[in-house]
Amino acid sequence: MSKKQVLVECACALLIGLFLYASISKFLDFKTFTDQMNNQPLPNSWTPFLVWAIPLLEIAISITLLFEYTRLIGFYASLVLMIVFTIYTGIVLLHFFPYIPCSCGGVIRNLTWSQHLALNLFYVALSILGIVLQHRKSFKPIFITNKHSLV
Amino acid sequence: MKKIKWTILTFAILLSVGGAFASRPHALLSGLYYYNGTGYMPVVGQEGVTYVCESSPLTCTYTLSGGVYTPYQTAASYTPIQATPSTKPAPKKEK
After folding, report:
1. Which of A22, A35, A118, B40 allows an S-S link to A107, with CB 3.0 to 4.6 Å?
2. Do B9 and A101 touch (CB under 8 A)?
3. With contact defined as beta carbons under 8 Å apart, do A37 and A103 qualify?
4. Burial of residue B13, with CB atoms counted within 10 A of its CB: 0-12 exposed, 13-18 middle, 19 or more buried
5. In this structure, what DSSP letter does residue B84 have?
6. What is the three-class DSSP state of B87?
7. For A7, what's the count of Cα atoms within 13 Å in the CB-facing half-sphere?
8. How far apart are CA A48 and CA B64, in angstroms?
């Protein structure tokens, strides 16, 4: 197993770990998650959709990251989702909303909004790394992949 | 190679699922309370609907167990929704 391959597997493992932990935690305490979603400065009419869409999307991304042939889609999807979370965190920190909701309902309850932002940025970087490495692997030139057959 | 790959991924799955169950908060046996400056009052209504927990150094809600109020939602303050200039739709006026 090459170094790059180990890096890809580790990036996958970290992303799967985050998404599975986050989604299962939400389902295990669904009422609190619903309350916390209502606590966000977003219209409450979005809550019934978001409380199902977010954890189901996280599980779907985890599944795509597991298998080699869907992994690139998984990395792109995790990048988009983490960018959305990062933008939302940034907007909250910039006092864009009329009030700052507490970050007490998040998956990692003890983190402040700034720490959430740092964590999100780390996972954005991890998704980008995964995309770059997976692209190199998927689109490796034929003369490299078949070098043994050419000899 | 596949063995190492699946070992790493299985470890991540087990750790995340186990961690989610291990960190699951205990079910609330009693209701929630907030501190109004003079005493503890029971929280009426639903979070995000009748009140919000705004980011602050205070404690938003407490639980009551054995006569002791324990902080539940920390680093936040209890704010009734009428007092919050929020983006949420204002409650309908009854005719």
Report:
1. A22
2. no
3. no
4. middle
5. S
6. coil
7. 15
8. 30
Q: What residues form DSSP beta bridges with B11?
A: none
Interface test with B, best of A21, A59, A66, A70 (most B CBs within 10 A): A21
Query: Per the CB < 8 Å rule, is A36 touching B55?
Result: no
- pLDDT tens by residue, A6-54: 899 999 999 999 999 999 999 998 988 898 888 888 888 999 999 999 9
Q: How far apart are CA B3 and CA B6, in angstroms?
A: 5
pLDDT in tens, A86-125: 999 999 889 888 888 876 655 566 788 888 899 999 999 9
Bridge partners, B52 (sequence order): B79
Residue A59, classed as helix, strand or coil, is helix
- Secondary structure element (H or E) that encloses residue A57, with its range: helix A47-66
Chain B partners of A16 at a C-beta cutoff of 8 Å?
Answer: 9, 12-13, 16
Residues of A in contact with B46 (CB under 8 A): 35, 38
Three-class DSSP category at B55: strand
ipTM of model over 0.90: no
Angle, helices A113-138 vs A71-93, to 10°: value is: 160
- Residue from B1, B49, B86 whose CB has the most chain A CBs within 10 Å, to mutate: B86
* Dist CA A106 CA A35 (whole Å): 11
